[in-house]
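Hey, can you fold this one?
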Amino acid sequence: MWDYSEKVQEHFFNPKNAGAVKDANATGEVGSISCGDALRLTLKVNPETEVIEESGFQTFGCGSAIASSSVLTEIIKGMTLDEALKVTNQDIAAHLDGLPPEKMHCSVMGREALQAAIANYRGEEWSDDHEEGALVCKCFAIDAVMIEEMVWANKLRTVEDVTNFTKAGGGCAACHEDIEAILEKVLAEKGEKFDPDAASIEVVSEKKEKKPLTNLQRIKRIEEVLDSLRPQLMADGGDVELVEVIGNTAYVNMTGACNGCQMSAMTIAGIQQRLMEVLGEFIKVVPASEMSKLVTIGA
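Sure. Predicted structure:
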């Protein structure tokens, strides 16, 4: 189970500037839903001063992605575009009082979305600098340029570090050898030697082993978490009900204002993140309508 700061939890449960900015004149989109993370950042920039007057986000991702996007929109409001371009992923993480190493890629995604939005405003073509033959991680479309930049900026030392900050190597692992070569090259440029057995930049504390939950215990804990979230949902006219738990999948119905809401996917992602934190195990939360597909497949 990862340890999240109070600020991460605050921005996750009460995200700032969620949704698209009305009359936005700058848009930046990075990531892809197929890879598990996607972010659209919209800005309203004063054309005379180039000051960011409003900022908003729409994201498909985990709780850390929501928190990183939320705090980013707060950081850059009131900045000029040139000032905003100086915001780094470390700045985003610092404003959240830190992120777990495994979630640092969320802050990187925010930084890239900001760069893309500013390029969009200025009529420039922004890309993630993929060059022919330079694509390292095909699973998440991460190139050598980005990996090198993250190694330099964040003092990365291991393949695990690179995966935590960029997601590269987190899929099929076929690119691990190429990532090691990049680490060796960049560290040599800094006068250091690559050690494949080095510890990651942050040692994760040992987790206490615990007995797996029975399905009855799991259902009870899920209900308790939903009860704790219910007042917040009801304040916006919505609600959630648990329909069934099959293995590590919880099927829920979003009701009231939450039913059909454009933000319902984000709400479900938030519920899933909270359940994983409380239960200390992976659990997937999906709409109960997905159960019909299981019935069709099993028929």
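Strands lie at 26-32, 37-45, 52-60, 135-137, 142-143, 238-246, 249-256, 284-287. Let me know if you want another pass with a different chain boundary.
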